[in-house]
Amino acid sequence: MTAETATIQQRVRELGPWFHDLDLGGVRTAPNHPLGNFLQELWSTVERAFPSDMSGKTVLDIGCNAGFYSFRMAERGARVTGVDHSDAYLGQARFAAEILGHDVEFRRLEAYDVGELGRRFDYVIFMGVLYHLRYPLLALDRVVPLVKEWIVVQSLVRGPQWERGAIAGDYPITEERLFEEPGFPALYFVEHRYAGDPTNWWIANEAGLAAMLRSAGLRVEEHAGPGVYFCRPTRGER
């Protein structure tokens, strides 16, 4: 082991625990992650949403954690801004960027406050965040105006994994059975914890997540996988 590798290992331990498993000069940050290689699996699902050459493009990574997706974008030549509410995660991301040689801007912001950045982005990554938010529609309303071309949204989903079909624009107050039908848009509220995590607040079914995205002013271009949507903004037809 070289002195450089030993130094990286020591710093990784000091900054831990890590949720993102990164390879920093041969040092893995979370080699025994309980979810396995989930980041790479998600990346393989969403990778095709982004051009291979992103030179001159801007990307906002909301809930960037230690920077896994931010670094994938930087590798393609994009100018990347990663935001997260956690100083611990941002400390990991800045250290990883230094080791990997990526010039990424990292900022401490809540998802509700992204408007403070004062600019729009060609691409927005909003993955693994929505179900952790107490006010998910408020966050979407703040995020969507920042999207120029494309947003990739991924969220935890449970319940029926299909949409009921056409939903009418209105129903009489006497309609009750509709809400019991599988595939009707729904959100499940977690009062206490789910998977041991007190920040898991709202978990949608697939129909509910798609409906939320449409309600926030997005056009779903592709349902790419469980809880994964590629969308374009529709308000003002940007």
Q: Secondary-structure map with pairings?
A:
Elements (H helix, E strand, L loop, with lengths): L2 H13 L7 E2 L2 E2 L9 H9 L11 E5 L5 H8 L3 E6 L2 H14 L4 E4 L12 E7 L8 H8 L3 E8 L32 E3 L12 E3 L1 H10 L2 E8 L2 E6 L5
Parallel strand pairs: 3-4, 3-6, 4-5, 6-7
Antiparallel strand pairs: 1-2, 7-11, 8-9, 10-11
Give short descriptive properties of this protein.
two-stranded antiparallel sheet, Rossmann fold, 11 strands, 238 residues, seven-stranded mixed beta sheet, alpha/beta
Describe the 3D structure.
This protein has a single domain (3-237), classed as Rossmann fold, CATH 3.40.50. It has helices at residues 3-15, 38-46, 68-75, 87-100, 136-143, 206-215, and strands spanning 23-24, 27-28, 58-62, 79-84, 105-108, 121-127, 147-154, 187-189, 202-204, 218-225, 228-233. It is globular. The longest helix is centred in the middle third of the chain and has 14 residues, at 87-100. It is built from 6 helices and 11 strands. Strand 1 (23-24) and strand 2 (27-28) form a beta hairpin. The protein is α/β, with parallel strands linked by helices and 238 residues long. Helices cover 26% and strands 23% of the residues. Strands 5-4-3-6-7-11-10 form a 7-stranded mixed sheet. The protein has a two-stranded antiparallel ribbon with strand order 1-2. Strands 8-9 form a two-stranded antiparallel ribbon. The chain starts with a helix and ends in a 5-residue tail after the last strand.
